[in-house]
Amino acid sequence: MIDWRPFTKLVSESKSVVLTSHMRPDCDAIGSEIGLALALRSLGKTVRIINGDGVPPHIGFIDPNHDVIVLGGDVSAADVECDLVVVVDTSAWSQLGPMADVVRRSAARKVVIDHHVNQDDLGATMCKETTSESTGRLVLDAIDALGAPLTPEIAAALFAAIATDTGWFRFASVTEATLVAAARLVSAGARPNEIFAALYEQNSLARLLLQGRILTNVKSHLGGRLLSTAITQQDLRAVGAEPTDTEDVINRLLGVAGVEVALLFLELGPKETKVSLRSRSSLDVNRVAEQFGGGGHRAAAGVRYPGPLAAAENAVLAAVSAAMG
Ligand SMILES: [Mn+2]
């Protein structure tokens, strides 16, 4: 359990707060930022959300008022003056992108609210629970500790955060606390059916066609215990899809009987490959990811491999195969 007293003390001593999160932000990152920003504003704080990356269009509904500002685009590093910086859903310098330098140089006090396993402390007061399924639920606890009211807008943002980080409440990380938090958010005005439709029933045709390619490219290893698939820049161009259109498809590979681990290789450039690792067995894919400078959780981790797609496939498939025995 997190002791929220140091956090509430820092908030009470601050007037202006900047919230930030990781690059390529997901629903847990943006939902946590929006929920916390609205709660802090209800307490009279001046709050800005400043990220290194913009909000991906498919989760734009979580930020209906376009609260998220992008560093460099809308605001320069010199503008990021405040009393308190709160970093949510990451505690790794490497994931903050251009915000890392800004946070490092800022004279403001710092808090991290996060659920990822990582060694960095960001020079911050750590509000971290690595067993938590999401940062969204930790932010709900933080809002309770602050005594701020739960509005329907806050509830929707945090519900989206928790629902997406748990694959809509089906991952092993889901506990009673997850569902109690979700029930409270529904009671406060979150509408699961509307959030689900906004998230999963607004796909582009390009995304559907890309999913077709991802599934067509699946290869089986170790007698079907390990499945891998790959997407090249040429695949993306052929169907007019974005790299973010590859999200979530990997989980469908885990739906095949006998599969323990699934890998998705996404060619980002001639010398950069993104690798997504998923496990539904005892294999801790975070450990494999760490061998390549990546990270995440036991069941879901990622790597940015500094080499071409084929090299990433060779290296990571070998490491995963070795770990699977
Ligand atoms: Mn998260």
Short summary of the structure?
This protein is 38% helix and 19% strand. The chain has 325 residues and is of the alpha/beta class. It folds into 2 domains: 5-200, inorganic pyrophosphatase (n-terminal core); 206-324, Diaminopimelate Epimerase, Chain A, domain 1, CATH 3.10.310.30.
Structure characterization notes:
- The protein has two domains: 5-200, Alpha-Beta Complex (inorganic pyrophosphatase (n-terminal core)); 206-324, Diaminopimelate Epimerase, Chain A, domain 1 (Roll), CATH 3.10.310.
- Helix content is 38%, strand content 19%.
- The mean pLDDT is 95.
- The chain has helices at residues 5-12, 27-42, 99-105, 135-146, 152-165, 176-187, 192-200, 205-216, 233-239, 250-253, 285-291, 309-324; strands at 16-20, 46-51, 68-70, 84-88, 109-114, 125-128, 219-221, 226-231, 261-269, 272-279, 295-296, 300-305.
- With 325 residues, it is of the alpha/beta class.
- The radius of gyration is 20 Å and the shape is globular.
- Bound molecules: manganese (II) ion.
- Manganese (II) ion is lined by residues 28, 89, 115, 134-135, 165.
CATH fold-level label of the largest domain = inorganic pyrophosphatase (n-terminal core)
Radius of gyration: 20 Å
Describe the sheet with the most strands.
6 strands, parallel
Give the strand order, joined by hyphens, for the main sheet: 3-2-1-4-5-6
Q: Structural class of the secondary structure composition?
A: alpha/beta
- What's the CATH superfamily of the largest domain, by name? inorganic pyrophosphatase (n-terminal core)
Estimate the mean pLDDT confidence. 95
What's the architecture of the largest domain in CATH terms?
A: Alpha-Beta Complex
Shape assignment: globular
pLDDT under 50 segments (min length 5)?
Answer: none
Give, in order, the helices and strands.
HEHEEEHEEHHHHHEEHHEEHEEH
Number of strands: 12
Count of structural domains: 2
For the record, give the distance between the C-alpha atoms at the N and C termini, rounded to a whole number. Answer: 36 Å
Instruction: Note the beta-strand portion.
Output: 15-25%
Bound small-molecule species: manganese (II) ion
Total of helices: 12
Oligomer: single chain
